[in-house]
Structure formats: C-alpha cells, structure tokens
Amino acid sequence: MPTKDLPEEVEFLLCAYADGECDADAAARARTLVEGDPAAAEYLSRAQTDRDAYVRALLNEMEGIDVSGAVISAVREHAARSERHRREIKWRRVTAPLAAAALLTLVAVVLFPVFGKSREKARQTSCLSNVRQIMTGMLAYAQDYSGHLPSARDWQKQLHDYTKNAMIFECPNGDPKMGRSYAMNRQWSGAELDSIPDKQAAVIVYEADDTGAPALRHNGGMNVGYADGHAKMVREVPPGLLPSTSLKPPSGGYGLADELKVSYEAQSEVWVASVHEAVLGAEQAVQDEGGFVLASRLQATADPPKGEVVCRVPRERVGDAVNAFGALGWVATREIAGEDLTARYLAAQRTLATDQGREERLRESAKTAKQPQPASADRAKADEARKAQDNTRGELFNIASATDLATVSARFLQRSETPPPEGLGGTWTGAASAAGASVGWLLRVCIWLLLFAWLWAPPLGVAWLVRRRRSAGAAR
Hints:
Mean pLDDT: 78
Structural class: alpha+beta
Oligomer: single chain
Low-confidence stretches: 416-430
Strand order of the largest sheet: 6-7-9-5-8
Order of helices and strands: HHHHHHEEEEEHEEHEHHEHH
Number of strands: 9
Shape: elongated
Strand content: 5-15%
Helix content: 40-55%
C-alpha cells in the first residue's frame, strides 16, 4: 500500500516491524516513528491488518489437510530420489572404467596391427639394407682378389675390412645371441664371379638361422643378395638354397641289358636346431617315402647332441629321401654312391641255369640206367649242384635287395648356440627374466598409449566432464 508521505526506507522498516522480522534497534526506531508521526502509525496499522488477513486466508486454505502425511510423503520421495541418485553414481563409477578399457582395447585392436606391420616393414627394410651392404663388400673383395668370392667358412671375417660395421651382419628380427643372421651359399664358396652363369639369379647371401638353413623372418619372406650385387625380398626359399638332388635311377638297360641293376647308398650330415625333433621327423619321412627304418639313434646328452637314422627306401625314392632329410636342417655334407651290379646279376643267372641243367642231366642219367637209387658219386654231384643253386639264389636275392632298396643314412648334429629355456620357477634367474619381460611389455603398452593420447584422451575428458555435471545437478 503506497504512501506518498513516508519514505521507502520507513515503509520497509514498518513492514518488518509489523511482521516481527527486525532486531531491537530497528524495533525501537519504528516505535519512535509511530509515536511521533500519525502517518507512520496509520501505515503500521494497515500493515498489521494485511498480515492478519493473509494468516487467516492461509489457515482457511489448509483447513482439513494432513500436514504430517504430506511431510512424510515428501521425505519418502526425497529419500527415493537420493537412492536413485546414489545408484546412478555407483553405476557410473563402474561403467566409466569399463568404457575407458573398452575404448583403449578398441584402439589397440585397430591400431596395433597397423603399426605392427609398419614396424615389421621398417625392420625388413633395415635387413634389406644390410644385405645390400654385404653384397657391396662382396664385390669389393672380388675386385681385390682376382674376381674370386670369399670362402663360405669365414666370409664375414674376410669382409670385415670392406664393411667396417659388424652390425650389418645382424638382422633386426634375428636372435642377438647368434651373432650372425646371414649365411653364404656354399655352392659359390671361393668361386670366380665370371664363372657364375646367371648372376642375376645366383644367390650369394641369404638370411639363415644358427644352423645355416634359410630363415623366413619378414612376413613369411626373406632377404637375399645376388651375384650381380642387387638384393631383394623373396616370399619363398630360392631353389638353389634347398638341399635337393635330381638323382633319377635308370629305368632302362641302355641297350646293355633288359634292365640295369644299380644299387645306391646315400649318406649325409645335417645340422639342426633340435636333434630330438630331427630324428622323429626323419623317421616319419622314411614312412612317407614308403621305406622302413633299420636303425635310429639319439644321443641328447652328448656335446653336441647328435642322432642318426639308417633306413631302406625304394630305389626310385632315394632322391626324395635325401631331400626329406635335408629339409630338417642344413646339409653340411652329402654323399650318394652307386654301384652297377648288372654283370654280377647276369653271371649269377647263368650260374644258376648251369647248375639247374647239371642237376637235370644227373636225374636223366639215373633214369636211363634204371637204377632204383643213383650211385654215390652221382648223389654227391647232385647234392653239390643243389648247394650251388642255393648259393646262387642267395646271391641273386642280395643283388635284388641292394638294387630295389637303397640304403639312406643321415647323421644329425645340433649346432644351436641358444641355451635351452629354463623353467619359470626353476631358478631365480628364470623368474627375474620373466618379470623383466612382463615389465618391458607394460612399458611398451604405456608408451603406445602416450603416443596416441590425442585419440583417446579427448573422449575420456568429455565423458568425465559430463559425468561431473550430472552428479552436481543430481546433488542440487
């Protein structure tokens, strides 16, 4: 109710005095104004009247309402909202780490293979650069030594003065304990470059394991260097590096006989990484070639460990058996010897026919003489003829056995420089190495996460801000 005679400050003071909302000093000042100013007294009276009317109207409106029930309902509703909010906060605290872990896993699944291939591609390029430098040193060595390549036995030592870098002999994917990752093709050991017929296809240096066998280290491929100096990555082992033989036993007599009787005996020495696995593989290879094992020996406690397998295989499969043994490692030595037994075979056949004819003549003589029993001299001659036939048949059997079945033997030597793995709990060294490997793996994961923080950090930050604002709003 506006009053022009009173200032606004006085009206506020009188309203507060009428509602009982002022302190003692303000109340004393209000009483002084009311006692000394009729307009102030009238304003206070009207304010008190309005207050009483408002109180009566409020009481009439709330008449018949259960205030305690409304308060209890409000309290229960507030408690339910608080419980829902608490559960929502708890659920967010659980789901937020799970969502972050799922996001990181997704990033790892998508990006790690990509960068793993890029990393492997970089290692392959580094290895190819090593092979190119080695071939450059090879050609430089040949220029100083009348066009001859170094010896395959110590070629790295001979190339030292031309490469000046021992690191180029180690592939990034090779075993650092080996000290070498490449091998020289022994076929061209000390050979003259001009004597190589096809330099663009003649492999001089290739990736190898500790036994000298070709190693496919880079996405199923390997780097090789050729006699003309170039190097490249190939997906398959070049044919010149495979331990193979093109031996084909004769199938005809070449006009000398109906069939030549040739016996074969093959011996080889193979360097392998595991003698036990090589012996088992050789036994299986003999069965695959249709032969049988005569002897199998394994000396795992020898220094170095060694083994031997001796078998018989069909003559037409002797080359395949030699190749199967050579595929188990790296062939250090190989010898295949043959002997033509055709003359002995024909001579034995003639002797058998002669003895059989003599026995027949003795029987016919006894029948002509009409004697119930042959004379002692004739009986002795018949027994001698039968014994000669038995001996001749035995010789024919030996010749057939030697010519139809070839004897193939292989010695396996373990030339691995890598020590056998120790059990995880067997020694403190094994446990420490395993723990170190785990820590190294975790460090690599952390480094990758830091490198790609620009991918996963912004979504996590936005999720954290949204969660914080929702929590603040629910609390209010």
